[in-house]
Amino acid sequence: MTDALDDETLAFAHRMFDLARGGASAELAAQVDAGLPVNLTNSKGDTLLILAAYHAHPETVAALLARGADHARANDRGQTALAAAVFRSCDEAVRALLDAGADPDHGSPSAVETARFFDLGPMLTLLGRE
Asked: Does residue 2 sit within a domain?
């Protein structure tokens, strides 16, 4: 027995990740509402939430969080959605993740470490660290 996915399933999954990257909040939310796993990950361990945060789409971040996306989940490199949002200096996404309970010290590098490394003072302030 093989765990390989067929081409149609792979194409669908890639399209879902593209929706997260592109900030297609309504379409992605509808897919999750229809049964798409909200914590679906790609081959690098990136979740839909991490991709939405990294590409600075706060509406998509909020929609995924409202549907139970795991804000604490880290990708294969130890990065979280909060660290991604901090890296992109996306205030709204950072606030949404913090309001959902995301830990600024979780991950490697954490959101706090990311803000310090890239000298993102406003992000440190938003994280309550400066």
From this structure: no
